[in-house]
Write a structure and sequence with these properties.
The protein is mainly α. The protein folds into three domains: 1-39, no CATH class; 46-120 and 144-220, Cytochrome Bc1 Complex, Chain D, domain 2 (Orthogonal Bundle), CATH 1.10.760; 226-426, Cytochrome Bc1 Complex, Chain D, domain 2, CATH 1.10.760.10. The chain has helices at 7-24, 29-39, 54-63, 76-79, 153-162, 172-180, 185-192, 200-215, 226-231, 239-249, 309-312, 349-358, 408-418, and strands at 124-129, 136-141, 279-280, 326-327. It has a two-stranded antiparallel ribbon. Strands 3-4 form a two-stranded antiparallel ribbon. α3 crosses α8 (200-215), α6 packs across α8 and α10 crosses α13 (408-418). The two termini are 18 Å apart.
Length: 427
């Protein structure tokens, strides 16, 4: 983020680090290492800033500004690190959830990656054909956050700024006041007009539009992975990766395309977003590391608790059938976004893929035992909502003792393929 630091600020930091180095007797190389570590998470976010429009540059400044939390110290980039495909947990001691600005504050879900988020449509119910019954059904699609509660990127950006478990600002006015008194207030005036700060509510909305404009730049969707190079005819898969891609597409094996969609015959990267933006109930195991889960009566029910859902749903729609459902994430850069699932239940990508394959054939592998000695399957859902879990689609259409749809070697192949989805800039 050097281009956005004043020369005095950068020089002052360099002086402090050099002073530390000289006092400690450490090699001067340490200075370079320290500087690199400080700016590694920020510089890629603003790569190519010279080619950005003024509103995008303003959005980049807002995105990286750690003074916009209360207390100061947390920025958007803290939980959406560009080096991790704009995901992360702000140095949290709990890998599954982010550390907030207030001391001892932690979120309740793993923050979703923002890479490729700009392609998500606004939340709505759309008509989709049920492949099993052939019926046309209304299906929830889109929005931002894991429950789709924000219509677009600007609304999404506003959420963490005002969330007491995240950036903890008491009001929109408090955020705007910090920007008004900050180093890039004149940039905001040049983008939105000299009187932009006269109305704090209107100013806040405009600042969120700037963040959204930044998140719509190619920095967030470069389409620069090796998979994209293969699509363009500029690279080839290894045999293992090619096998994994075939299994990924095979409706009788991985069946991953059913949700992590792409146009099988297309060589255009934008046709391969690896999500259909729908919601699914997978029955991920309960993650006891999440502080909120210390309360045995607490359950994160996802989409069905989305504010205003009932008003958006079709008439007579059973909203409770969506309890436990979370938005299907893109798989682009998935190798960088561990841990996995909405609650970070799986530490590794291989475990996440293996869970899909063996959740129903070997549930004892993933779930604890109940007091009666039986496996407590779908233990992160109240009993009445366990029937919402997807048990019909491949590879979930299995029973205990049956052969999984994927063998261990085939799981390895799919993981190898998924690792080709990492954008070069993020590697």
């Amino acid at each position: 983020m050097w281009r956005f630091l004043s020369s005095s600020a950068a020089g002052g930091l360099t002086f402090m680090l050099r002073f530390t180095v000289l006092r400690s007797g450490l090699p001067i190389l340490v200075l370079a290492v320290l500087l690199a570590s400080i700016f590694a998470a920020r510089a890629p976010a603003e790569e190519g800033a010279a080619s950005m429009t003024p509103i995008e540059q303003l959005g980049a400044r807002l995105f990286s500004d750690a003074s916009l939390s209360e207390p100061r110290g947390v920025s958007c980039a803290s939980c959406h690190n560009p080096a991790r495909a704009f995901s992360g947990v702000n140095g949290s001691s709990i890998a599954a959830v982010a550390r907030g600005a207030p001391a001892g504050a932690f979120g309740t879900r793993k923050p979703p990656a923002l890479a490729y988020a700009s392609f998500s449509p606004p939340f709505s119910f759309v008509e989709k054909k049920d492949e099993e019954t052939g019926k046309i059904e209304k299906t929830p699609v889109g929005g931002q956050f894991r429950d789709g509660r924000a219509r677009g990127l600007a609304e999404q950006a506003a959420g963490p700024l005002l969330n007491p478990l995240e950036m903890n600002n008491p009001s929109k006015a408090a955020v705007v006041a910090k920007v008004k008194e900050g180093a890039y207030a004149d940039l905001a005036r040049s983008v939105f007009g000299g009187n932009v700060f006269d109305n704090f509510d209107a100013a806040f909305d405009k600042l969120m539009q700037a963040i959204a404009a930044f998140e719509e730049t190619p920095a967030f969707h470069p389409f620069s992975s090796r998979f994209d190079a293969v699509l363009r005819g500029k690279a080839k898969f290894t045999p293992l990766e090619a096998q994994g891609f075939a299994l990924f597409k095979d409706s009788h094996k991985g069946n991953c395309l059913a949700c992590h969609a792409g146009e099988a015959k297309s060589h255009e990267p934008k046709d391969w977003l690896f999500t259909d933006f729908t919601f699914d109930t997978l029955g991920a195991p309960r993650n006891k590391a999440i502080p909120a889960n210390a309360n045995a009566d607490y359950f994160d029910l996802g989409l069905c608790k989305r504010e205003g859902l009932a008003a958006l749903a079709p008439a007579a729609f059973d909203v409770e059938s969506l309890c436990g459902a979370f938005k299907v994430p893109t798989l682009r850069n998935v190798a960088l976004t561990a841990p996995y699932m909405h609650n970070g239940a799986f530490a590794t990508l291989r475990d996440a893929v293996a869970f899909y394959a063996t959740r129903d054939t070997n549930p004892e592998r993933w779930y604890p035992k109940a007091p009666d000695g039986k496996v407590a399957k779908f233990d992160d859902l109240p009993g009445k909502f366990k029937d919402n879990v997807n048990v019909k689609e491949v590879p979930y259409d299995r029973k205990p003792g049956q052969k999984p749809r994927l063998s261990d070697d085939e799981i390895d192949a799919i993981v190898a393929f998924l690792e080709t989805l990492t954008d070069k800039r993020a590697e």
